[in-house]
């Protein structure tokens, strides 16, 4: 069974730059793709939705509470690092762990 590791890696790399748009595109375009591609697109989409909501809340808090911008920057850095780690794991064909305890998009 072919698992298209390159496509799975591209999902995570593009997510660094265009957030949840690339996982949505891959999730719906690759409906007939391999299970590995769909699973990685689903995991990435879940992660990007959580990160988008978190950063939105932090952006609101920045206008109220001083120094929240430090947390905001740390979350953005964590977003980049986790996506790079997931891209490397996907390229190796390994299971990716995006460190979110729940799923918004179910299997």
Overview of the structural elements:
The protein is mostly helical and 107 residues long. Helices cover 71% and strands 0% of the residues. The longest helix is centred in the middle third of the chain and has 28 residues, at 35-62. The mean pLDDT is 88.
Short description:
The chain is mostly helical. It has helices spanning 5-18, 21-29, 35-62, 68-92.
Secondary-structure content class: mainly alpha
Secondary-structure element series: HHHH
Note the beta-strand portion. under 5%
What coarse outline follows from CA principal-axis ratios?
A: elongated
Helix content: over 70%
Biggest beta-sheet profile: none
Radius of gyration: 15 Å
Give the assembly state of these chains.
Answer: single chain
Distance between the termini: 20 Å
Number of strands: 0
Number of continuous helical runs: 4
What's the pLDDT, averaged over the residues? 88
Low-confidence stretches: none
Features:
single chain, 107 residues, mainly alpha, 4 helices
Write the layout of secondary structure elements.
Elements: H1 5-18, H2 21-29, H3 35-62, H4 68-92
